[in-house]
Amino acid sequence: RDAIDRKEKRSETFKTAVHGLETGTSALKTEELGRRAPQWVRDNLVTMCMRCKEPFNAIMRRRHHCRACGYVVCARCSDYKAELQYDGNRLNRVCQECYVFLTGHVVLEDREGKHKGILEKGAAEVSGRSLLCSSLQLLDKSGKGSTRGWFVIPQDDPLVLYIYAAPQDVRAHTSIPLLGYQVRDLPQGDSRHLFQLAQSRQVYTFVADTEELKQRWMRAMARSAAGITDPEEGEDADS
């Protein structure tokens, strides 16, 4: 009974879990898994396994695509085989979640019941219902180096800025509670559109790609810093 309940729950969650953002991929309906070839999530849109959230680095550098849902996963999370109807019922490499769904087999390591931490909100999930999301650069303390990432203020957590390394990552690498911060406009330097978040001695300096995008972020952050949680009228949910 427990195994059946888990399988039914996966059937419901797959309807929203298998989707694409910034890739042009169309959503795969639950009943289409294994019957229709998925469009793969591009490698450069993720920096970590989309299942276990372990980062891809020099040690764990191998990336694989699940042939059922198209997610980018590590070798450990794709160490499963399932027959896929669209490939003549031949065995293909799939992720653990697709393996359980397609075969009905239960694996010993099941993370589904694990409670999601504050950073374990997928970028695609929160960007789809955000107050604002886009790519920005975050300058280091020296002001000379910068890191480009994917920044999101979710509708269901409008007082927090989530920072992802890439727009398809399944875990944010950090978050900034915006309440109480001051938003500062900075003169344009070296054709860069600069602005800051400041509170006491903590200062974050951002670089937007355009002046229009900079102004949108400044408005959104100022509203969150003031505790205003309602979406600004006329403001798009993404960039």
UniProtKB/TrEMBL annotation:
Domain PH: 129-226
Top-level lineage group: Eukaryota
Keyword Zinc-finger among record annotations: yes
Cellular component GO terms, alphabetical: cytoplasm; cytoskeleton
Location(s) in or outside the cell: Cytoplasm, Cytoskeleton
Key word Cytoplasm present: yes
Protein name: FGD2 protein
Organism listed in the record: Himantopus himantopus
Lineage: Eukaryota, Metazoa, Chordata, Craniata, Vertebrata
